[in-house]
Design a protein that fits this description.
Rossmann fold, His_PPase_superfam, Phosphohistidine phosphatase, hydrolase activity
């Protein structure tokens, strides 16, 4: 049980973008979602809505596939108070992503970060350090595929997030139907 002096509980949703198309004559940054990715993006939105997650802030990579993942999540019912696109997420390693998390607004209790592999999976491992639900870790360690979504909780202010200050409460891979 928390007391009035405890910091608010933070929820950090870390998503790998949905499946993208390959074999196009475009720069990697500009690759769009595939048909499956478009369906899975909607499924992410349905999962968020169905489980009561309403991010105060969404921060997405500027890569087309990441931006489209959020757009499709909105089509699936997801809502957010503030949506930002940040080019520092594209090809970012976990240390750079921690710096981004530390700059989140303190009034944001739930944040969704949409990025890429290996940055997003490595950030989960860094922040949670194997703390949390064993079944979620087992699923995450087996594979962190496109549309993978890790749900972390922390009692720390965003500015104080460090390795091991969060715990993994769930890992899901929402999939859309054909």
């Amino acid at each position: 049980m928390t007391s009035p002096n405890d910091p608010p509980r933070r929820t950090l949703l870390l998503a790998r973008h949905a499946k993208s198309k390959w074999g196009l004559d475009v720069d990697d940054h500009d690759r769009p979602l595939s048909g499956r990715g478009r369906r899975d993006g909607v499924a992410i939105g349905e999962f968020l809505t169905g489980n009561g997650y309403k991010p105060d802030v969404v921060i997405s990579s500027t890569a087309t596939r990441a931006r489209q993942t959020w757009e499709r999540a909105v089509a699936g019912g997801a809502v957010a108070r503030d949506v930002r696109y940040d080019d520092r997420i594209y090809e970012a390693w976990s240390g750079a992503l921690v710096k981004l998390v530390r700059r989140l607004p303190e009034d944001a209790e739930t944040v969704l970060l949409i990025g890429h592999s290996p940055g997003i999976p490595d950030l989960v491992r860094l922040l949670a350090g194997r703390r949390g639900k064993k079944k979620a870790w087992t699923r995450l360690e087996a594979k962190f595929p496109t549309s993978g979504l890790a749900i972390l909780h922390s009692d720390h202010d965003w500015a104080d997030v460090d390795p091991g200050t969060a715990e993994l409460s769930d890992f899901v891979v929402p999939r859309g139907s054909d």
